[in-house]
Amino acid sequence: MNQKTLKVLACFLGVLMVFSTISLASAAKIENIYGTGGDITKNKKVYNNIPKTTITNNVIANAKKGTPMVTFGSGNGPKVMIVAGVHGNELPASIAAMKLINYLNKRSIKGTVYVIPFVAPYSTSRSTRFWKGKNLNSVANIAGTPTNKIVRLSKKLKIKSLADFHSTLPGGVPGRNSILATKYPSYQSYRIASYISKKTGHALIYEYRAGVSYPGALEDACNLARVPAVTCEVKSRHGNVDSGSVIRSYNQMLTFLKYEKVI
Length: 263
Ligand SMILES: [Zn+2]
Prior knowledge:
Elements (H helix, E strand, L loop, with lengths): L2 H19 L1 E2 L4 E4 L11 H4 L6 H10 L4 E5 L6 E6 L6 H14 L3 E2 L2 E5 L4 H6 L19 H11 L4 E8 L9 E7 L3 H13 L2 E7 L8 H7 L4 E7 L9 H15 L4
Helix pairs in contact: 4-9, 7-9
The site of zinc ion has 5 residues, from loops.
């Protein structure tokens, strides 16, 4: 092999290495993970606040059939999951997740990001808190529920960490912009929450053991399954998109991805 051939080969290998570590996010994959479908366009407070793009249309089309999950990247690096819409009347996080999907769609990222913008599109389409009479953030520990499906999927996909985005009623619990975590059995939950809290200025709220105060919360069920997880809350009235709430939720999402060095 002469020197020129070697140079060409080295260059080719270099390009290959770059592409294997930085995945182009444009090839997003959209799939349905549970039969909770609904028409998001019927909720004007959501639909009027999300970017009108091809990927948005594709997500909305999928949401008619079930819980859409959008996957970006497939290269080396961490696999993380972002969830919104566990409660169908908490609109800012779902809008922020759609903004994030549109942001990631034009970016190169390091690793894989799974985004579930509407856990129960049927509930979001009507701004209702429960799905089929169930509070989905209290049944993630029960087999067969949509949130339990997310827990099992996060294990199967070997997710490094998961963040679940909500909004909280002023005067409710916790009633403030905040990041929730537990220290045991997944201490990483506390580390992630501490970072997001520090960067956003939102309150850090933590307990020692997962599954005690909120046994069926998605965050707790993930932490108990050893998938480190946090819950991020922004203050906004239920069924409403209060001023500044979407951007706060969106910043929480970006900060989470920065913590995991995906972006
Ligand atoms: Zn909630």
